[in-house]
Design a protein that fits this description.
The protein has 167 residues and is mainly beta. It has one helix and twelve strands.
Length: 167
């Protein structure tokens, strides 16, 4: 049975800018140490590296993988936005990952009554691909860091893995 693997990617934008500076070249983003990236999937879908920057996830042929990115401040101080997926190895094993936008209704806290939530309609963004063949994919995402005023603070990248099996 096919499944969806949601990958939450949380990036320490403050530490990256402090260590690597403000490289604004989208064509030549700086590689960053994976210690500044925290990737999480549901239990049982990680082969190794859960909550680290070199997460190796497992998938079966026909599965869907979706990535969502966030800064540690969840966009309050800085946001990060994936803008390019590059497969270093095994790019024929998955469909070309594409960004998607979906309008969803999410619950939000209600400061006047913490026991009751409110809802709001928001645009939800993610990158998605299908797994097509058995093997291993090494890839990297290129991402921008943008401050709360919308100013580009830098462009960076790092490289995790996907292992696709028959089971």
């Amino acid at each position: 049975m096919s499944r969806i693997t949601d990958v939450l990617v949380s990036i320490d934008t403050e530490a990256i800018i402090k260590q690597y500076g403000k490289n604004n070249s989208q064509a030549n983003p700086q590689f960053v140490d994976p210690k500044h990236v925290y990737m999480v999937v549901t239990q049982g879908q990680a082969i190794s590296g859960q909550a680290g920057g070199e997460l190796n996830i497992k998938a079966a042929v026909g599965d869907v993988i979706r990535w969502r990115e966030s800064s540690l401040s969840l966009g309050f101080e800085q946001s990060c936005i994936f803008y390019k997926f590059v497969a270093n190895q095994g790019n024929n094993l998955i469909s070309n990952p594409q960004p998607r936008e979906a309008e969803v209704i999410i619950p939000v806290p209600n400061p006047q009554d913490p026991y009751k939530y409110k809802t709001q309609k928001v645009s939800n963004f993610y990158w998605t691909c299908d797994t097509l063949k058995v093997g291993s994919v090494t890839y990297h995402f290129q991402f921008m860091v943008v401050d709360r005023s919308g100013v580009l603070c830098g462009c960076y990248q790092w490289d995790p893995f996907i292992t696709i099996s028959n089971a």
